[in-house]
Design goal:
six-stranded antiparallel sheet; 100 residues; globular; 1 helix; two-stranded antiparallel ribbon; SH3 type barrels; mainly beta
């Protein structure tokens, strides 16, 4: 099984452990904040900052840059990652009530 994460399948992967930078957000004081995703819920991400503080942000309120393990950077709108990883995968597999 290939669990390699890339820019095409990031939407269906766990985001925990990835480096993140906030590019756009409804709270302008959070723009530019960088850290590591340490938790993910249906609607939020918890980011651990470099000083070990943690902040919880709403996915739908921003645009984020994730750094993948291969150091590739991917920009994602938060609304595109709303949901738990397994729920996002279900959306991919389900087409009009039937499996692909």
């Amino acid at each position: 099984m290939n669990t390699y994460i890339n820019k095409k399948n990031i939407y269906y992967h766990e985001l925990i452990g990835l480096k993140i930078k906030i590019l756009q957000y409804t709270d302008p004081t959070l723009i530019g904040v960088e850290g590591t995703v340490v938790d993910e819920t249906l609607k939020t991400l918890v980011i651990e900052l470099n000083d070990h503080r943690r902040i919880r942000i709403f996915k739908a309120n921003g645009v984020f840059e994730f750094t993948l393990p291969n150091r590739e950077k991917v920009i994602i709108k938060g609304v595109d990652i709303i949901g738990r990883p397994w729920d996002r995968l279900k959306k991919l597999l389900t087409v009009k009530g039937g499996l692909i």
